[in-house]
Amino acid sequence: MTAPRVRVSDEIAWATSQLAEVGVASPRADAEWLMCYVLRIDRGRLLIADDLSDDQAWSYRDLVARRRTRVPLQHLIGTAAFGPVDLAVGPGVFVPRPETEWLLEWAVAALTEVAHPVVVDLCSGSGALGIAVATLVPTARVLAVEKSADSWQWLNRNITACDVASRCRAVCADVTDAGATVAALAAVAGSGPGSRGAAPVADLVVSNPPYVPEGTGVAPEVGADPHAAVFAGDDGMSVITPMLALVGRLLRPGGRAGIEHDESTSARVLAAAAATGLFTEVAGHDDLTGRPRFVTMRRSR
Ligand SMILES: C[S@@+](CC[C@H](N)C(=O)[O-])C[C@H]1O[C@@H](n2cnc3c(N)ncnc32)[C@H](O)[C@@H]1O
């Protein structure tokens, strides 16, 4: 007797309803990504995919069951797509979010002003912003700063896997301590990107730091991110405010910076940047839905 066929389309429809039932935000897309992972195919090939083998059907149902417990999709498939790159992610590192691509787009546009830019990515996590900039701007040299030793391991792994190691270095440092971070960056200067003798002189600083005010309600998946990657004190500013002094020290006169922030803290970030007295052109940016996403500034001359 032949085993009944397990159709890809039927399994995806079943998984979609399973995931919708527990409140997963994008149940159909998640069901499809998990199927692609099991079949080892691109999403564009799903429509013409064959039936599932027994083993594939078991694997798929196991993944759907785990996703129902709100394990992030990216932890299940081991990667997160960000701009032009796929980054390895898992426990111990923040999963890059699509909304940060707004800042990436701004950063790449800002770099058209500079021929061979030096870029610093503060609070780099998996390396999302720094590695994407290095990939999209082949003349850029990138320094990525991250405090967490666990995240730093993922960052180094992604720099190598994304083939940008010749132009990208990772530094383990605390961005709220400007002196220590400048010293750590100076220690890698001369051995690669950003070297101009001592500490790097940056044309552009980008940062998606922790910024969510403590106590804010978040989706269950956020529980898989390290707490210190997400939350930043009662007002969401415990990293951004001290980090602004470092941004001022790293940027050359006329250099630019873009910092992502919580929807609720745009006015605070604008005020904190202005209060340093180090920047001009301090401006807030919304996404297409009108949500405030990031603040940009230019180092005074
Ligand atoms: C919101 S995550 C963003 C990661 C990455 N930039 C991205 O967009 O996916 C913030 C990152 O900042 C790191 N971090 C938190 N406090 C820091 C500090 N004081 N100095 C350096 N990195 C810090 C966290 O470990 C985490 O990787």
TrEMBL record:
Keyword Cell membrane: no
Keyword annotations: Methyltransferase, S-adenosyl-L-methionine, Transferase
Molecular function in Gene Ontology: methyltransferase activity
Release factor glutamine methyltransferase N-terminal domain sequence ranges: 12-78
Signal peptide: none
Entry superkingdom: Bacteria
Pfam families in UniProt: PrmC_N, TRM5-TYW2_MTfase
TRM5/TYW2-like methyltransferase domain: residues covered: 117-178
Record-level GO BP terms: methylation
The protein's name: Methyltransferase
The organism's taxonomic lineage, starting at the top: Bacteria, Bacillati, Actinomycetota, Actinomycetes, Mycobacteriales
